[in-house]
Amino acid sequence: MSTVDRTPREAAAPACRKPTDGTAGRILVDVTAQPLPLFPAPQTDPVSFAGTQHELFTGMNLRIGRSDTVHGVAWRPWINELTLPTPSCHQGWSGLGAAGELVATDASVTCRKCRRILGLDPGRQQIPLFDLP
Ligand SMILES: [Zn+2]
Fold first, then answer.
1. Checking DSSP bridges between strand 102-105 and strand 73-77, what pairing results, if any?
2. Cα(129)–Cα(131) distance, rounded to whole angstroms?
3. 106 to each of 33, 56, 70, 122, 126, how far by Cα in Å?
4. 68 and 14 in a common domain
5. Are residues 70 and 105 in the same domain?
């Protein structure tokens, strides 16, 4: 088929061809199902990311964001056999830790729950809000 015989719609869809065996309809060939790139999606290699996290947090403690509280580090399952650092006390945070939500630090653990989990002295007791009679 030459391009002269094609309608504009047929020319715009080169993956379509008319059957030559007398059957009705069209047969689609060379059709791939590629998603349209609506916005750029970051490509992260899970093995590389988990390895970097281990290098950063092994033997360290962590802070969540800009908080002054220092938590102990526990390793939680992620993908397959890979693990990622999390606070020992299961304190939640938003994100995966890939955008700097968790910050490694060598400061001492100040989270009382983490200190208890790690077998450390829990430190000072909670200050009473008011004196009891
Ligand atoms: Zn903690």
1. unpaired
2. 7
3. 49, 11, 9, 18, 24
4. no
5. yes
What's the token pair of residue 104? 């490694």
Total domains, the chain:
2
Ligand 1 midpoint to CA 84 (Å)? 16
Q: Is the pLDDT of residue 115 over 70?
A: yes
Among residues 62, 80, 85, which one has the least CA distance to residue 72?
62
- Supply the DSSP symbol for 73: E
CA of 76 to the centre of ligand 1 (A): 14
Could you tell me if residue 37 is inside a domain? no
Same domain, 75 and 15: no
Q: What is the pLDDT of residues 35-65, one digit of tens each?
A: 677 777 677 889 999 999 999 999 999 999 9
Q: What is the per-residue pLDDT for 23? A: 61
Q: Which domain holds residue 27?
A: 1-32
Q: Please, which pLDDT band fits residue 99 given cuts at 50, 70 and 90? A: confident
Q: How many angstroms is it from 101 CA to the middle of ligand 1?
A: 15
Place of tokens 């002054």: 68
Tell whether 15 is covered by a domain.
Answer: yes
